[in-house]
Input
Amino acid sequence: MHADINDSYDENGVFWTIDDPEVRIPGRLYRQDNKIRLQLHGTPRTFLKTVEASSNEHWVAQEILSTDEYGQPITIHGDVGRFGKITAQDCQFLNSTQPLIGTGPEHCLLAPRRLLHGSHVSTASADLIGIRFRLRNLDKWAVQRGVDLPANTISGVVIKYTRPEYPVFSNLSDGAVVTIEDVITESWSSITDAHIAKRAWVEISSISSGSLDEIILRYVAPIISLVELSLGVECDPVDMSAQLNSGSWVRVSSGSIRTLRNSEDYSNQLVNFDDIGISGVATWLDKAHLLGPFPSIVSRLGAENRINLETHLLELTTVAEGIHDCLHPDGRSIPKEEAEEIKEIVKSTLLDTGSNYVDIVTGSLRHLGVLGYAKRMISLVEHLGPEPPAYVGDVKKWAREVEDARVGFAHRRIRSLTDDQIERLFIILSSLQWLLASVLLMEAGIQAEVVNRRISKLPNYRTLLTDARSAYPKIYAT
Output
């Protein structure tokens, strides 16, 4: 069972709704092209309505509700082939079809949002107390030590494994516990063919309780962003299990959890688990609510891709402003109280003079004292320490270029681009992405010097600085 729930399959079974458990409907559960579908040989009463055939007759009929009538998605339980117990959550009605041959029941096709394997869970919002998951490329990031493989001997090979001595778990501020652990698996296809694998898993335990959606948003998504920021590659979930209130575990499958091969290119990697440590992971999770979706956006924007340059630059310049506000919520050029006093003085003066522009002037002062965009970018650079990184050059001039790019794209002042403009904007995009990645990784406890040193060793670093000195000689002096 465990080998293929995230791959293609096609299994027969019997199914029922949680509101109508006595009515069992045969069907098939299948997964194809990362889409999970449930085909029932009959229609659950949830999707039926009773209608009168004619006002002059006394018999009634049932017909399937239209897609805008059936209401909320439903939860369906089933016993399925090799999988056994399953819970299909948030099943959306897709269509129904009559068999081409014969007069059998209609086939009802549903699309579950996800499946829970191993239990019949009563509601889609059932409370959970733990989650375990693996990510694509997690093994590269986790770099767990402890394997000793001596040279071949006449008697064979001996593999020794000792679990790492350093702490691999840490408490979170909400009482949950985060753990990074190794799992060793072995398989034998024959006496001469064996496979041993060491895989890293993330586990969040002792959760006070929450729905699977809440737990994924609170814990899983931030871990994904942290690993992606560290490695510079996408790290989607490849396996996931959730712990019920009873203490038992169920495996989770959905279209977004799928078997993926690890990346082959880690040339943009900045840090790994050794640099962050389990305490840094815990710190990151504790700050997840503060940073919101910003780390995910930064980690997913590939600076190598010039096809979507305008979109990426607009997104990144917007996110940069949001990150600054998160880290410096009180950052102002004029204290808020004094700014309010100035506004009142100006308003009072205009009223005394009988001016017709009171509302216009006071409206223009609404953001008095709030840092301008360029100053926010300067503040983010200063977040890295007194010595600005070489990839931003002259900080004030660089900040103005970033501001010009943001305003230009946001207000469509920049339309068609020449090759020279594309090159210049690509330099701004790359430097801004490095800056934001550095600022965010510092929130996991990594020193700015470490990140700057790793950035300076990236394959495209020297090339970009050379191009920057040519494109922006006043910003990047030789």
In short: Residues 291-331+371-471 form one domain. Confidence is low (pLDDT under 50) at residues 55-63. The two ends are 61 Å apart (CA to CA). The chain is about 35% helix and 25% strand.
